[in-house]
Amino acid sequence: MPTPVYIMCAMATSKKDNYSQKEIELLRHIRNAIMQSGRSPSIRDMQKTMGYKSPRSVTVLLRRLIDKGVIKKHGSRGLAIANEPEKTQYNALTINVPLVGEASCGFPLLAEEHILAMIPVSTELATPPHRYFLLRARGDSMDKAGIEDGDIILVRQQPTAKNGDIVVALIDSETTIKYVFKEKELLILKPFSRNNSHTPIVLHRDFIVQGVVVRSLGKIN
Questions:
Q1: Burial of 166 by CB count in 10 Å (0-12 exposed, 13-18 middle, 19+ buried)?
Q2: Global pTM?
Q3: Which of 178, 182, 190, 197 does the annotation list as catalytic?
Q4: 1.20.1250.20, 1.20.58.100, 1.10.10.10, 3.30.470.30: which CATH number matches 17-81?
Q5: 122 flagged as catalytic
Q6: 3-54 pLDDT, tens per residue?
Q7: For labelling, which of 33, 42, 83, 124 has a CA lying 20 to 30 Å from the CA of 181?
C-alpha cells in the first residue's frame, strides 16, 4: 500500500533544526535582496515584507536564523548567508529572478521599466552568488540549440563569455541570442537554426555581452 503523502511530509520535516514558515520566508527575503542588489535588506524593509508592526518580531526571527547557523552578521549592520538549510526532494530553495521585456534605445536590459515579473527559480538552477534574469526568446534563430520562439531562458548576468557559450547581446537596440566565438580581434555571434536566412553578426572583441544562457525553461507561462 503506497505511503500517504502526509506521512512522507512528516518524515521530511522531522530532522533537527526545523524551520518555521516565517523563518523560511525571512531567509528567502534576505537571499533575494543579496542576490538582486548585493546587500542585505534593512530591518525596516524586513519588517514591512513580513507584515510585522514591530521591528522586534524581525530581530527575534533573525536571532533564530543566526543561532541555526544559516545567516551571520556581515560588517556593522549587514547580513550574509552562512549555510543554506539542507535541500531535500521535499524542500526546494528558490530566489526571485526578474523576467525582463524588450530592451530598446541602448538601455540596460535590467532597467526597472523592463521588468515584467519576479519568478521564483530553484537555487539548483540560479546558483548564488551570481545574478540572473529571465528573457523570452523571439524568433527561430536558435531552434537547433533547443531555444524555440516564445521559450523563457535563464541567463546568468555577466559581461564576458567563453567560446561556444550562448549569449544575450544588445545589437542595434535589440536583444539577440546567439552562440559566441572569438576570432582574433573579432566576436562572431552565430545562429543555429533550421532557417538558413539567419546570418552571423560580426562585432569588435571589446563588445560587452549582457549575459550567458544557462538553459531554456520552455514555455512556462
A1: buried
A2: 0.71
A3: 178
A4: 1.10.10.10
A5: no
A6: 333 323 333 333 345 888 898 889 888 888 887 777 888 999 999 989 999 9
A7: 124
